[in-house]
What does this fold into?
Amino acid sequence: MNFIEAFENNTNAFTKKIKDSSYLEGNIKVKVKGVDDISEVIIGENEITYESMEKEHKKQFIVNKKLEIASTFKKDDKYNRKFSVSLIQNGFQNKNFLSSILYLNIYYKIHCVIYNENTGKYYQTTMKDYPKLICCYKDDKWMKVDGKENENLEYSDISELSNILTLDIDWLIYKPYLSSLSKYKVGDLETIAKENEIDLKNSKGKKKTKKELYDSINLKYFKQDI
It folds into this structure.
């Protein structure tokens, strides 16, 4: 009950102070509304009842939904040990915690891509091949941006967002599929790669090194919804 009480008492973390912002889309300025917490953008885009709610009801809806989502988290051996129940609960009691974004990716099966308008850079938050939801940070507010979901975006190091997010965990939360690199011979990795239809040559047409094969195999399993 301590988590529930702390969550409900911490309503200031979820206060939705909406203000109008002008966002330039092509040559057109669009009036959009931003919110204080990126989690609200993600939840609002994935819960069909949110958009139709009256403004005064949305705040409590987000509080309740965060509580509900946090309660569904269960420790799994595929996650690294730092991605824990206590981490998730603490993140959802606050706003703009990376752990909350990571779990919302899993919960809704989406890829929240962060766009910092101040720098013009994009940041990925999962390696899964989930549909992209691009959340823009502008003037201390968060909002959804349309039109970039199908583009091949160039991603920057998420550590650059330490001034706008609480980076309470590394974004790579899944354990590697393979054991440590030293346990394999090149031939072993080539066999596993063939079984998984992974190319044995790199982008330059050269035979992949042991480390490249190891990373390619792990990357495939990271991307799969397993």
In short: The first strand starts at residue 19 and ends at 25. The beta strands are 19-25, 28-34, 111-116, 121-123, 132-138, 141-145.
